[in-house]
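Pasting as-is:
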Amino acid sequence: MLRKIMPLALLAAFSVNSHAALVTETWESTVTYVTHTAFVVGDTFQWTITYDNESQRMSSYNDGANGVAESGAGDDTFYYSHCTTAYAGSEPCTYPGYNSYSFFSDAVFDLTGFTSVMSTAGYMGGNVYSHNYAWAYDTTSGVMYRQYIADDLQFIGGTFGGEYAYTYDSNDRGNSTRFTSVLISTTEQVPEPATLALMGLGLAGIGFARKKKAA
């Protein structure tokens, strides 16, 4: 039986996807300046971002008729990309050569800790931005940038000391929130192929141990 399992185990072990696992970060931001009443100085809120920390590309999209919630899918159209000179994608990279950054990645944000407060207070609902993006990137010196822009919200967080958000209400009036951000946790999703590989290596190890014992 083990003779039949071991080839499959070894195949699983060597067929691991070499791509990095997705990273999810949780941040806490403390408000330092506001031009509205939704927050006051000293308030805090949390937000999360998920991205691939080995990616070398991040793109921007034009709004489609269905809005930006699709994050580049559906009827949104490609606008431009940032990528490193080493990246070879199917679409042309409009702004290549950013070798002072360790990675570029499209990302998924959860900003409800901020937007729910702003929306309840009536400070969101405009349509100022015609293109949208959700990015994560770090400099080679370790400075972290996390940026999101869509319709009525421009949000920039990270560790560079100039974090801020601009929101626009139904009359396209701008509202500024400035804050400082601290990374409070990071988790990494283990890809399924890696799980299979670990199981495969375990089975292979059991088989080797039994064979050695029988000898």
